[in-house]
Amino acid sequence: MWTGRYSQGKRIIEVRVRLFGPLADRDLQFILDTGTPVTIVHTGRSDLLGYSASMAKRNSRLWSTGGPQDGYTVEMMRLETMGLHLEKFEVACHDLPEHLGVDGLIGMDLLEGHCLTIDGVTGTISLEP
Fold first, then answer.
1. For the whole model, what pTM was predicted?
2. Which of 19, 64, 82, 109 is the most exposed place for a label (fewest CB within 10 A)?
């Protein structure tokens, strides 16, 4: 079981994610977003790791308040977060607004098959297999 803390005053849950690519591996800051069906990585960050649109497995389309946004999916060599170590994990690559200060969103695809607990009293989150 993995347990972490989040800042209750921010009203978002930020978690560290380590991504591995053909050129580099990096620690990045993601937001846990249970309203997002798939995990999303900012295209600028995936580019730094060595992933590009030419490596896309398929097209991806997100809908937001600004309308549809097209992107693509790639298979990450490795993704580590919240006690999980996932090999060949597919993520969607999209441009996220820089002013959000986030490198990506953890979606429900990553949480599938696990028990996520968010404790709003203590400001802790835990993930169990």
1. 0.92
2. 64
